[in-house]
Amino acid sequence: MKLSPTIQHWRKKLTQAVTGRLGQSRRPMHNPSNCTPTPICRILIIRPNHRLGNTLLITPVVAEMQQLFPNATVDLFVKGGIAKEVFREYPQVDRILALPKKHFKALGTYLWTWIRLRMHSYDLVINTVSHSSSGRLATAWARGTYKWYGDRNERLHAIRYQLIPHMAHGLVMDFRTFWIPQVLFMTPRPLPLMDLKLSVAEKNMGKAILASLVPSGKKTIALFTFATGTKCYTPEWWIPFYQRLQTEFPDHQFIEILPAENVSQIDFSAPTLYSKSIREMAAVIANCSLFIGADSGVMHLASATLTPTVGLFQVTDPSVYGPYGNHSFAADTRVMTTETLLEQIHQTLHLIDRENANRIWPKVA
C-alpha cells in the first residue's frame, strides 16, 4: 500500500524528530603535533537510499576513505540494488548490505539486513546524511569503535572555510574536519570527484555502441531530456533548445539517452540509446564530448564518467546537486537565459578542444 504524500510528509517529520538527537559522534583523540589518524582497517558507510543520484554522490567519500586509509576495506549499508553496479570497480568495497526498496513486500529480507548489519564490528562508521532517520538509526545500531553521524561542526568551518553546500563536497570536507580538526590549518587536498570507475573494456564497448548510433570520428553531445516531477523540462523548452544546439554547434552530432520510461522531450528527433544498464549508458556517455541534461540520476551518472556535464536546474538548488569537475557546470535556468547558456557551452567546448590539442598522447607501437 502506497502512503499519501501528506502521510509520508508527517511520517518523515516524526521520525526525524525522534532520531535527530540520536547518537553521539566519536573520534580518536589526536596529538596536535601528530595528525596521523589512528589505524583503521574496516569502515562502514551508510546511505540507505535507492536513488541512482544519491548513491553516486557518496562515491567521493568512498574515494576519500581510500586516500586516508589505503589498507582499509569498506562496507556499504544501502537500499536497493543500484549500489552493486555503481561500486563494481571499487576494489576496497567489500560487503554491500542492501535493504529492499519496498520493505513491506520483503519484510524478511528487510529484517535480516538489519541483523547482518549488527553481525560485524567496524573501526569507523560514517553516516553520510545527518538528517536521514534511517541513517542515524543504522549508525547507532552498527557496532563501531568510532562513529560519525554526519553532523557539521559549524564553529570549525567558520575558522577557515565558508560552508560547503554541495552534497558530495560538503560530506568529504565535513568528515575531514571531524576526523582531524587540524586539517583546517593544512594545505587542502583536492576534493575527490564522483567516479564510476569505468574499465577500459567498458569504455571500448561504449565506443562501439556510439559508432553504431552515429558516424564515428565526429564529436558527439549526449542529451538526456527527462527528469522526475517538476525537474523535467517540457517539450516546449527542449525542442527549440535542441534546434539552437544544432545551429550553434554544426561540427557536433547529437544522441539522446532515453529514460526507463522510454520517452523523449524532443520527439525522438536525435539518434537514441535505450538501455537498462547504467554502466552501458555511462560507457556511451564517456565517449561523448559533452552531456546536457536536467537534474537527475542520469546527470550524476554522466558526471561520474568524468565527461564534462551541463546540469539544467529549475527546481532544486544547483549549489547542492550540481555536477562538478572536468569543466562541468550547473545552469540555473530560472535566472540564466538560453543565450548565456549557449555561450557557456561554447566556452566549455573551446576549453576541452584546447586541452585535447595540448595533451601529449601516448605513442602507439
Tell me what you see in this structure:
This protein is an alpha/beta fold and 365 residues long. Helix content is 40%, strand content 16%. Helix 10 links the parallel strand 6 (220-224) and strand 7. The radius of gyration is 22 Å and the shape is globular.
Quick summary:
With 365 residues, this protein is of the alpha/beta class.
The dominant shape is globular
- How many distinct beta strands? 11
Overall pLDDT, averaged? 88
Distance between the termini: 62 Å
Key terms:
365 residues, six-stranded parallel β-sheet, 14 helices, five-stranded parallel β-sheet
Task: Draw up the topology in text.
Layout: H1 5-19, E1 42-46, H2 52-56, H3 59-68, E2 73-79, H4 82-86, E3 93-99, H5 107-118, E4 121-127, H6 133-141, E5 143-148, H7 154-160, H8 167-179, H9 200-213, E6 220-224, H10 235-248, E7 253-257, E8 272-273, H11 278-285, E9 290-294, H12 297-304, E10 309-313, H13 318-321, E11 329-332, H14 338-358
Parallel strand pairs: 1-2, 1-4, 2-3, 4-5, 6-7, 6-9, 7-8, 9-10, 10-11
